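Quick review question:
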């Protein structure tokens, strides 16, 4: 399953699991090297026990491209607003 590192609080990493709509809490020491907020992971669980976690660079790149494309689309539309700025 895939998950994203949402935040780090008090030495704990909060990973949002996309498919199951839940949070996974891990000690920061269990994160793969190079992990940072908004990193995507491929995660294997056995029940609630973590079996493996690895960085998923493909998902990270795809999500960044998706966000970039959306921002570009919004910028193109922004000139046609019905509301006037003061």
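Suggested answer, residue by residue:
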């Amino acid at each position: 399953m895939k998950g994203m590192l949402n935040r780090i609080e008090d030495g704990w990493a909060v990973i949002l699991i996309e498919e199951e709509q839940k949070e996974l809490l891990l000690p920061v020491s269990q994160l793969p090297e190079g992990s940072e907020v908004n990193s995507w992971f491929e995660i294997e669980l056995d029940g609630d026990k973590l079996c493996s976690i690895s960085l998923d660079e493909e998902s990270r790149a795809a999500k960044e491209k998706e966000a970039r494309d959306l921002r570009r689309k919004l910028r193109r539309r922004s000139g046609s607003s019905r509301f006037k700025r003061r």
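Why it works: The two ends are 48 Å apart (CA to CA). The mean pLDDT is 87.
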